[in-house]
């Protein structure tokens, strides 16, 4: 029985249509919040949680993500020449031990479920984490939601854990919604329901710990009306034979998959940053008169 979560999957193969035209040739996951791209924040969260193997599911126009996790030789030479240690550290901080970084190509963006399924041969037979870089959180402990979820998982390593967070139920159509039974046991989940069909105001957020059985269910999951294979639909089928526990976070969620959430993330992260907090407060005061 595996107790440690060693591997994390980062699906980054989507088209990012909500961010067009910015994402026409640039991956959504490379949009920066403060000075780090979304995917870099996600990587840091995983590294803080003790993840050892980083598996990126990429697609066309996503090569800058590969480059971000590689050496930038000219830049490093230049910074070494200038003896600029701080910047050199920033440039090299996301280098992953050789052999522990995998880029898999999802040749067609057939949905989040399909992206996760692409990782099956790399994951093998052990539970693993999935992190969606466009879901960010602001929390008191600052260790990251994934760290908390992995701790939670330790109490029952046979279960799957899904991160959930309260939403305004009028927005149910944007999320996977869960029905919780006794304690934290998930009884049902529905992908993007109408408000009238939503079993609760609790939405799945972009953090999962999944047992490898999920690949069997993903393989058998049909595409939805929009042509996408949904992870929620595969998990719903798996519910019949496998336990799903909900990890409810009270951390403030920032949906960086749309403009407003992304802008808010930049403002909130700036306000939390010792260097930028005062200047940004001044700036906001000026803007608001
Ligand atoms: P999203 O639905 O937020 O991303 O998927 P998207 O499809 O790129 O964005 P829109 O809706 O068109 O604006 C959540 C995550 O799953 C990845 C995305 O890259 C994103 O990080 N994803 C989505 C894949 O890896 N492959 C897919 O086929 C779909």
From TrEMBL:
It comes from the Bacteria. This is UTP--glucose-1-phosphate uridylyltransferase. GO terms for molecular function: UTP:glucose-1-phosphate uridylyltransferase activity. Residues 12-267 form the Nucleotidyl transferase domain. Transmembrane segments: none annotated. It catalyses: alpha-D-glucose 1-phosphate + UTP + H(+) = UDP-alpha-D-glucose + diphosphate. One of its GO terms (biological process) is UDP-alpha-D-glucose metabolic process. InterPro entries: GalU_uridylyltTrfase_bac/arc, NTP_transferase_dom, Nucleotide-diphossugar_trans. Keywords: Nucleotidyltransferase, Transferase. It is an enzyme of class 2 (transferase). It comes from Midichloria mitochondrii (strain IricVA). Its EC number is 2.7.7.9. Belongs to the UDPGP type 2 family.
